[in-house]
Design a protein that fits this description.
Blueprint lengths: L2 E12 L3 E7 L9 E5 L10 E3 L3 E2 L3 E7 L13 E8 L11 E6 L7 H9 L3 E6 L13 E4 L2 H8 L5 E5 L3 H8 L6 E4 L15 E4 L2 E4 L6 E3 L9
Parallel strand pairs: 8-9, 8-11, 9-10, 11-12
Antiparallel strand pairs: 1-2, 1-7, 2-6, 3-4, 3-7, 5-6, 12-15, 13-14
Length: about 230
């Protein structure tokens, strides 16, 4: 496990309910990976916070935090965050991919690093979002659709060459996705408190046996999942 310190060098208000936080550090997660962070200056609470980057650069990455999140009380310009990671496995965007589809029903920010990478390669990005989110803060090159996810998926899967989802598809939608399930990656919603696999709290049952989201995930191919994703 790699330990490092992130220094807050940017705080930007996004919409009406969240902050974009820039952390300078020498440990940068790749798309699909996450960091564990500790914002508090005391030993409590015990659990670290899972941090998915929204954008990355060579010496910093950004995250999003809701205004009502207690962590926001500890963030000021110059404040330090104790970091562990990068954790998990990066997800590669296929070299032949020309159209990337992102799907989220709760936290679109967890998928934004994929959008950044795809756009830098000239790949078209479409984002289906079914939750409240300040979409005006997103890169204008992203095609955004808001609303119920099932109708969007029924009508747009024919062109999606690779799909990344922060969304539990459930039995009905999973059946719809089966023909392209080998090109769909789903983010585990299980807690990942340790980042090292020591606690076994994030075990996911796959067709090749149990895997740990914090080590072999947190994204898994839909075609590999043995049971309905939780």
């Amino acid at each position: 496990m790699r330990f490092s310190t992130g220094r807050c060098t940017g705080l930007v208000t996004i919409g009406n309910d969240r902050l974009q936080v820039k952390l300078d550090t020498d440990q940068i997660p790749l798309p699909g990976q996450f960091m564990l962070g500790r914002f508090w200056r005391t030993i409590y609470p015990y659990l670290n916070t899972v941090l998915f980057p929204t954008t990355t650069n060579s010496n910093n990455f950004t995250i999003e935090i809701k205004n009502e999140d207690p962590k926001s009380n500890y963030l000021n310009l110059g404040s330090k965050v104790c970091l562990i990671g990068p954790c998990g496995q990066p997800i590669l965007i296929n070299k032949t991919t020309r159209h990337l589809l992102l799907v989220a029903d709760k936290n679109p920010n967890k998928l934004l690093s994929f959008a950044q990478l795809a756009l830098s390669r000239g790949i078209d990005v479409t984002f289906f979002i079914s939750c409240t989110y300040p979409v005006e803060s997103l890169d204008p090159r992203i095609e955004i659709h808001r609303g119920e996810l099932k109708p969007f998926l029924e009508n747009h899967l024919d062109w999606a060459e690779q799909v990344l989802m922060d969304f539990n598809p459930g039995p009905t939608i999973r059946k719809l996705l089966d023909p392209i399930s080998s090109n769909i990656y789903v983010l585990s919603s299980l807690m990942m408190p340790c980042g090292s696999g020591a606690c076994y709290g994030c075990a996911v049952y796959t067709k090749s046996g149990w895997k740990l989201a914090c080590k072999q995930g947190p994204f898994f191919k839909l075609s590999e999942l043995q049971i309905e994703f939780e």
